[in-house]
Specification:
NADH Oxidase; alpha+beta; about 220 residues
Amino acid sequence: MKNTKEEILKAYQFRHACKVFDVNKKISDEDFHFILETGRLSPSSFGFEPWKFVVIQNQDIRKKLLPIAWGAQKQLPTASHFVVILARKKEDMMYNSSYISNFMTNIQRLPQEAVNMKGDFYKTFQESDFNLLESDRAMFDWASKQTYIALGNMMTAAAQIGIDSCPMEGFHQEKVESLLREEGIIFGDTFGVSCLVAFGYRLEEPQHEKTRQTMDMVVEWIN
């Protein structure tokens, strides 16, 4: 157990926001499938998995992303694998949507009684607990928060097997979504872009040690 804890913390120390990757080193199919699997198995609110992971290996599309993704200027040309994480929009995430109904029935395989009960809880949650029905943006932002759980798990899993990553919010959301529609990657108003993340192997070691606030600055115990 001690060795496991040490190895996990070692991976957290190893991980950093890698800006430039070694173009001569590619992640194996087996290793990248492992990374994607940790994203797929990630938890989400109500277990509704409001995400999709689009792996952009097409170099022409990567070049088209460059002018509208200012935070990925070095990562897009050098990353072994580049992922656009999508979040579902209000159309799918509404308590009475066909996506939610199908998910509870065919993915979670709940009996009808449980579907009705969970559906009622979800409706109350959206209407009053989190006020998600007040705007399309509120619903999308809530769904996007779920994708960040998967994002964190994928980056940590990658670090544990010696693979670097870099998450990015430096992009023009509307223009990136428009490009993905033009390329036939997203359709209609079902998905929006939550974030970008690049994976690969670092070209150089970080110039500075990892800096974080101390434990007592970020943790408060109420006994």
